[in-house]
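#onboarding

Welcome to the new folks! Below is a worked example of what a typical request in this channel looks like: someone posts a single protein sequence, and someone else replies with the predicted structure as tokens. Don't worry about understanding the tokens yet, we'll cover that in week two.

Example request:
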Amino acid sequence: MANLLRAEFYKLAHNGSFWMIGLVSFLLGRVLLLDGRQTSHLFYSALYNVPLLSFLTNIWGAIWVGGEFQQGTLYWYVEAGHKRIKVLLAKVVTYQVSCAVVLLLPVLLCGISGENLVEEKVFSALEFGIISVLSLVVTLAMCMPTFFLAIAFRDIGRTLVASMVLLFVSIFWLNSVVAQSAAAILPMGQLRLLCEQPLPAFMPVIWVVDVVGILALFFCTYGIFRRSDLR
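Example response:
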């Protein structure tokens, strides 16, 4: 497992697409902040824009996971004697870490800048830590469906199309008559609620819905991957 993780993180560090998408995320996030801050704190303003930037991780997931089938990398891992569950774990860990870097690292930098450069004292260190952890859990839940789709479709094109359709369906629900109930269970809506209601009462819902959702999607993905012909 350790060797698989080292190999995956080495590939990630040398993947030009990852750094390009990360740069685009950073620049787009700054543009959206200039267009108008939605809250009184830089951290929440940057976090408010994360759902809009999630299309970047859809693109990245299609490239990073879906492309592995086209290149035959996963096949060679299995042929080398690695168990499929370990191969899948290594891939999902690196994928989720990369998504967190792309979407949340700029938010964290904004939070630090707001606290130290412009002296925005909105919350304590404990509150900042809790909100950061909640934001991470929600972001991982938001990115997990693309990983599932990439394993299910085993290519870049269909994965990208399906993940974008899912993104637009989520946006439609969040702008429909069921927006309030949808926002509590959809990760995109949960991030917006975190910006509007710091340390909200619905925190247990986030833990239950998102953690269970991540685990359920992972085991569904493993069920597909275990029966996949990787050639």
